[in-house]
Amino acid sequence: MGELFDLTGKVAIITGSSRGIGKAIAERMAEHGAKVVISSRKAGPCEEVAAEINGKHAGAAIAVPANISSKEDLQRLVDETRKAFGKVDILVCNAASNPYYGPMSGIADDQFRKILENNVIANNWLINMVAPEMRERKDGSVVIISSIGGLRGTAVIGAYAISKAADMQLARNLAQELSPDNIRVNCIAPGLVKTDFAKALWDTPEGEKRASSGTPLRRLGEPDDIAGGAVFLASKAGSWMTGQTIVIDGGSTS
Which one is catalytic: 160, 197, 202, 232? Predict the structure, then answer.
């Protein structure tokens, strides 16, 4: 393995990693030498993914279920990671929620709050839980999984898009604060990826054809298409990048 992408000795927390993009990122980071912490709400799926990774890379993964809406859960996630692996070098904020589909005029206040709290505020909590030790070591990488929804208007997932635009600004702000201590904070903005989270948009042959027709590469994304970007940002290869958003969308926004 080339030195540029080698993550040997690094410890990564990946939220929302029991499936989809988060799982692919965890698998690829483990493949590149990192110890990975699998986390989502339910313990069973987390343990399954950790066992799968450990079957290929012995001792590389642990499961720590956590609900991103709970500050206490997130602190426990960080504490359990330190207990198992001694530190946190890489944080991937991938978990998100979107309980509403429709115009902004119809969204309930609690739905709007939940989207902003889970997709933006929880990320800030978690980043600030791991930042002090990264500052001490003068080394760390934070990757926030945003969305191309944050780059353009939408008539149906407006609050989600607002939260994803806010994540891009969160990365820019925190890059200004943390980069002097060599902590890099970046976003990845995927296009439509074939995950359970986005199933409503692609889960029929007609839906997939319609969704991919506006993509120059003429296909929807796969979780692995995003995982490579996360490995890049977490590794030496991305050591001079901070405060940026990498768009990985098959050319949809080009």
Answer: 160
